[in-house]
Write a structure and sequence with these properties.
This protein is of the alpha/beta class and about 120 residues long. About 35% of the residues lie in helices and about 20% in strands. The chain has a five-stranded parallel beta sheet with strand order 4-3-2-1-5.
């Protein structure tokens, strides 16, 4: 099942259920041989900081830290909204594996003409 898939996550500890389910879906996309990315924006950018997600564990799901690691190990990439990250004055030198700070143009380039996406 080739193709691309984008999961957009706008929440972190303000709504850990959305953050967790977003990475569950992203892992499903990566496991389906999709070129998968997670786009973190708004509060979701906090998930890109090492250690931030370590204590997020929603009932019925794997811990978020594990979901994020598994996603990257399956070839997934984590795009982090540059303006959102800078607005929150987070440390660009302390990103989780697989995360990269990008502008909107990079997301548009990835999504191209046809790329399914979901937002949490």
């Amino acid at each position: 099942m080739a193709g691309k898939f984008c999961v957009s996550i706008t929440s972190a500890k303000d709504n850990p259920d959305k953050a967790t389910v977003g990475f569950v879906v992203a892992n499903a996309a990566a496991a389906s041989d999709k070129e998968a990315i997670v786009f973190l924006s708004i509060e979701g950018v906090r998930l890109a900081v090492k250690g931030y997600a370590d204590d997020i564990a929603e009932a019925g799901f794997s811990p978020l830290k594990d979901l994020m690691t598994n996603f990257v190990n399956a070839g997934g990439k984590i795009y982090v909204c540059s303006p959102c990250f800078k607005k929150r004055q987070l440390d660009e030198n302390n990103l989780v594996a697989g995360a990269m700070i990008v502008g909107g143009a990079k997301l548009v380039e990835f999504m191209g003409d046809s790329c399914p996406s979901v937002t949490y």
